[in-house]
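Quick illustration for those who missed Monday's session on complexes.
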Amino acid sequence: MLLDDAVRAVPLVERERGPIVDVGSGGGTPGIPLAASFPAREVTLLEAERRKCAFLERWTAELPNLRVVWGRAEEQPLEQFGVAVAKALAHPPTAAEWCLPLVRVGGAAVLWVGPSAEVDSVAAVAVRLAGSVEAAADGLVVIRKTGPTPPGFPRRVGMARKRPLA
Ligand SMILES: C[S@@+](CC[C@H](N)C(=O)[O-])C[C@H]1O[C@@H](n2cnc3c(N)ncnc32)[C@H](O)[C@@H]1O
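Prediction with S-adenosylmethionine bound:
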């Protein structure tokens, strides 16, 4: 079931170029299934909790294209990835704010927003971060990064949750 949920994004990720980051990977979903689906692409599992990173590290022996980074999305170097994916990371507007700075101009963020898709609030956040909602279907939203990350982003740790942009 979890695997099915992750695999739903495969056609969307396939269309994008460049390395993939799974933001807030937790137990490894969707990053590990994506790494198995795209063996020629580097997949980074970015996770804020060290204990979870230790678990995720075990998978790197089986999947050579996988790497694990312990850290918070707001504290990473900007625009390193072609595509950022995030499932159950945070309230969707917050997830969008955390993911878009990680993506190169022309790349995309793919968010699992669930059935009660909050597409309007995600779209409002995307505009603030030089992004634009391109598609929303089946509980997934694709946000295109249309320009460089605007000055002032990412906001300092805690702000996206404390004062959501939308
Ligand atoms: C509810 S879990 C979801 C895990 C997995 N994506 C899934 O769908 O099962 C959210 C994860 O995001 C991590 N997380 C929360 N805020 C984060 C941030 N700012 N940067 C990186 N990871 C974060 C948490 O530590 C947690 O492991």
